[in-house]
Amino acid sequence: MAFFGPSRDHLARLDGALVVITGGARGIGAATGRLFALHGARVVLADLDLDVAEATAATIPGARAVRLDVTDRGSWRTALDEIGGDIDVLVNNAGVMPLGHFEEESERTTDLILDVNIRGVLNGMRAAIPGMVARGRGHVVNVASMAGMIPIPGMVTYNASKYGALGATLGARREYDGTGVAVCAILPSAVRTELSSGAQLGAGMPTVDPEDVAAAIVDTLRTRAARTSVPKWVAPGWRLVEAFVPEPVERLARRLIDDRRTLDLDAAARTAYTERIDRHATDHARDEESAR
């Protein structure tokens, strides 16, 4: 039987399980680490910003932090060596979300979005799944986004990356079906984290907290569902829109809720996040160039 099969004791089975969470320093990753630790898991927060990850780990009983660049397979090997032990649960949560007009997006920003949000997921699965298959048990959760189903102005490359993350999840799920390894996708709507800073939330846009997403991630150990939206009704609701709502009606509804609001951000409120992403994009471009 798979270690995390559908059952009522899925949380009891977390006691002592090794859970690795990428992008674990902040937001969804940190909230997920706290919830897994609450259920007795041994939590590892893997993040490019090691100092922040260490500070977060210090607030979570038994947690520790490792440095990880999800875009670099060598960094994955180093991190796994440092972690040691067999990974029971991998949460591919690391992601970046620059917003704005597509034609103004720099090439280095495009590269960063695609490499973190898609290559990072692929690298994580490639690093963890073989060992899980060998043991006949394991659980992978890829944090995609409702932007992986719903196109949104101001998110062209982000949309592409999250559609890709969902596709990678569903493909891996089929490929490893029957091995004891479950691969699941989480699709949050707008989340109250630094990624959405400067954006107008609510007003027709479903908005959740990191803790809501963390609860959905942990619940996949019970459901093993292919995809779970947060809130749960959003994905089924969007499928109905795609199936039955004519595009002119959808266009009107979008206009009423102002779906173009991500093109009109509060730049000052978003400064800290933008500066950090710009720094990572510059470093990433330099590393890519030196690797050639």
Automatic annotation (TrEMBL):
Q: Which SUPFAM superfamilies match?
A: NAD(P)-binding Rossmann-fold domains
The protein's GO terms of the molecular function aspect are: oxidoreductase activity, acting on the CH-OH group of donors, NAD or NADP as acceptor
Q: What sequence ranges are listed for the domain Ketoreductase?
A: 17-194
SMART domains given in the database record? PKS_KR (SM00822)
Q: Does the keyword Oxidoreductase apply?
A: yes
**Highest taxon listed in the record's lineage:** Bacteria
**Keywords, in A-Z order:** Oxidoreductase
Q: Which Pfam families match?
A: adh_short
What the entry lists under CDD domains is as follows: SDR_c (cd05233)
The family database entries (InterPro entries) matched by this protein are listed as:
KR_dom, NAD(P)-bd_dom_sf, SDR_fam
- Report the sequence similarity comment from the record: Belongs to the short-chain dehydrogenases/reductases (SDR) family.
* NCBIfam families in the cross-refs: PRK07825.1
| Protein name listed in UniProt | SDR family oxidoreductase
- Source species of the chain: Tsukamurella spumae
